[in-house]
Specification:
NDH is composed of at least 16 different subunits, 5 of which are encoded in the nucleus. By secondary structure, this protein is α/β, with parallel strands linked by helices. It has two domains: 154 residues, Rossmann fold, CATH 3.40.50.12280; 39 residues, no CATH class. It has a four-stranded parallel beta sheet. Helix 2 packs antiparallel against helix 6. It is globular and about 65 Å long.
Length: 231
């Protein structure tokens, strides 16, 4: 009876095969090579810049910063987002390929911060514009907290199922309702909340409810009033 002979290659086959699913393999590849697009508008971005140095070395997590949204799958928003900048942020997000993720970094990005207390130009939360996956509070957050947010995002990606992602879509990840961008007259910073407490009015209705000097003419201090009368 002839003995069965095994090829030397067969002995190493069992040590070279990994059994997994296509979904897990795709998630592993994506979480290990995140390419972020840095959208920094204020002081929080300075804290993120320290991650590039050798002390924190965020390259060990597979992060490769990109300057083009078409090459990025992660956008990190750091700083205050104004109404004028909101369309640009939404346009950058729409240019990113699927799947894509968002980290909201800092109090100003999450809620508007101290700049939204009495301001009509600040967006009170970036999640009203684009879906947010990770909220990172702080003013500003420490670099260690940013690394922790990236680790939590990696865990979130590892639990994703491609079938559910196609079925739900990006719109299901919104946490708050959308903004309504309606134009308002220049009626002063401290008056717009009192004049329109519940709803936005168009320019015609707003101009009828306010007098002309209150809308068009700013308040002149006594010093400048004396200079104007002298001239």
């Amino acid at each position: 009876m002839n003995d069965t002979k095994f090829h030397p290659f067969d002995k190493t086959v069992t040590d070279s095969i990994i059994l997994t699913t296509l979904n897990d393999f795709s998630n592993w590849a994506r979480l290990s090579s995140l390419w972020p697009l840095l959208y920094g508008t204020s002081c929080c971005f300075i804290e993120f810049a320290s991650l590039i140095g050798s002390r924190f070395d965020f390259d060990r997590y597979g992060l490769v910063p990109r300057s083009s949204p078409r090459q990025a799958d992660l956008v990190i928003t750091a700083g205050t987002v104004t109404m004028k900048m909101a369309p640009s942020l939404v346009r950058l997000y729409e240019q990113m390929p699927e799947p894509k993720y968002v980290i909201a970094m800092g109090a100003c990005t999450i809620t508007g911060g101290m700049f939204s207390t009495d301001s009509y130009t600040t967006v009170r939360g970036v999640d009203k514009l684009i879906p947010v996956d990770i909220y990172l509070p702080g003013c500003p957050p420490r670099p260690e907290a940013i690394i922790d947010a990236v680790i939590k995002l990696r865990k979130k990606i590892a639990r994703e199922i491609r079938r559910d992602e196609k079925r739900l879509g990006q719109g299901k990840r919104y946490f708050t309702s959308n903004h309504r961008f309606d134009s308002l007259p220049n009626i002063g910073i401290r008056k717009y909340n009192k004049k329109f407490p519940n709803e936005f009015l168009d320019l015609e209705k707003a101009s009828e409810s306010l007098s002309g000097p209150e809308v068009m003419k700013p308040e002149i201090s006594p010093i400048w009033r004396r200079r104007i009368t002298k001239s």
